[in-house]
Design a protein that fits this description.
With about 270 residues, the chain is an alpha/beta fold. Helices cover about 35% and strands about 15% of the residues.
Length: about 270
C-alpha cells in the first residue's frame, strides 16, 4: 500500500515537472480567447438650431419683428484666442512702419580718420560718422518696414462671427431696421443715446450702417461731434476690434445680413 501511494505521488510530481517544461506557446494554445462584442450606439443627427434676432425701430426701439439667423453665425461660443489673433492682425496692419534713421553710411561726414591709431593717449576712433560720437550714425536704427501679418480668411471670418455671437449672448447687440433721424442736431442724437444707456458712461455705442446714403446724412452729422459717445461706421469698413471695444453695437438689419453672407460663404474650390 505504501509503495503504491509513493508511486502515485512520484507520478504526480513527474507530470507537474513535465508540464513546467512545456514551452509557453504550447500552454497558450490550450486557452480559448473569447472577444467581447462591442455595441456601438450611433447618435441621431441633431437638427440645426437657429437664433432669433429681434428687429427694432430707430430711434424709438419698438420691436417690429424678428429675423432668423443660423446658429453658426450668432450662436458660436466665445473663443478668446481667435479674437486675440484677429485684433493683433488688424493692429499690425495699421502700423505705418515709416520710422527711418541714418546709419554710418548715410550721415554726411568725411571718411577721414579723426586721429592716428596710436601714440595719442586717447581712444581709437575712425571717421566722424562713428555711432559712438555725438551726431554720428545710428547703430541698428529702424528702417522703413512692413509690420503687417497674415491670417487665414476662414479664421478672420470666424472671428467676426464669434465677436457678434458674444455680443448677442451678452445682450449688447441691437438690430434696427434703419437709421433715420428727423434732424441733424447733435442734441437729438445725444438724447437718444442717453435714453438707451448708450452714452459714454455706459461704454458708448457703435452704429453700423449698410451704406452711406442721403437718408443717413442726419445720423452721420449728428454723431460727428459726440466723440466717445458714438461712432458711425459703414459695414465695409467694420473690423473685429470695433465690435469689441464699444459698450453697445447697434447694427442695421441689412448690414448684419451682409456680414452673414460675407463670413459664412464657402470659398470656391480650386480648379
Amino acid at each position: 500500500m505504501a509503495s503504491s501511494t509513493r508511486r502515485s505521488v512520484l507520478s504526480l510530481v513527474s507530470e507537474a515537472a513535465s508540464f513546467q517544461r512545456v514551452p509557453t506557446i504550447c500552454r497558450r494554445t490550450l486557452a480559448t480567447v473569447v472577444e467581447a462584442q462591442k455595441t456601438v450606439i450611433k447618435a441621431a443627427p441633431l437638427e440645426e438650431s437657429v437664433v432669433f434676432g429681434t428687429v427694432h425701430a430707430f430711434p424709438s426701439l419698438e420691436p417690429k419683428g424678428f429675423h432668423v439667423f443660423s446658429n453658426e453665425f450668432l450662436g458660436l461660443p466665445t473663443r478668446k484666442d481667435i479674437l486675440h489673433r484677429a485684433v493683433i492682425f488688424e493692429a499690425d496692419g495699421k502700423r505705418q512702419g515709416t520710422a527711418s534713421t541714418k546709419n554710418r553710411a548715410d550721415v554726411s561726414y568725411s571718411g577721414k580718420k579723426i586721429r592716428p591709431q596710436k601714440h595719442s593717449g586717447r581712444a581709437r576712433l575712425g571717421d566722424r560718422g562713428s555711432g559712438m560720437l555725438r551726431g554720428g550714425g545710428r547703430i541698428h536704427g529702424p528702417k522703413p518696414r512692413d509690420f503687417s501679418t497674415e491670417l487665414p480668411l476662414k479664421l478672420y471670418n470666424l472671428a467676426f462671427r464669434t465677436a457678434l455671437s458674444t455680443r448677442y449672448r451678452m445682450g449688447e447687440l441691437t438690430i434696427i431696421d434703419g437709421t433715420e433721424l428727423p434732424t441733424y442736431k447733435t442734441r437729438v442724437m445725444s438724447k437718444v443715446l442717453a435714453a438707451n444707456n448708450w452714452d459714454k458712461p455706459h461704454g458708448g455705442a457703435l452704429l453700423v450702417i449698410s451704406k452711406k446714403t442721403q437718408d443717413l446724412a442726419h445720423v452721420e452729422r449728428a454723431a460727428a461731434n459726440l466723440g466717445a459717445d458714438c461712432e458711425v461706421k459703414e459695414v465695409e469698413d467694420l473690423q473685429v476690434t470695433d465690435l469689441l471695444k464699444w459698450g453697445r453695437v447697434v447694427i442695421e438689419e441689412e448690414a448684419l445680413l451682409r456680414i452673414q453672407e460675407r463670413t459664412t460663404q464657402k470659398p470656391a474650390p480650386r480648379a
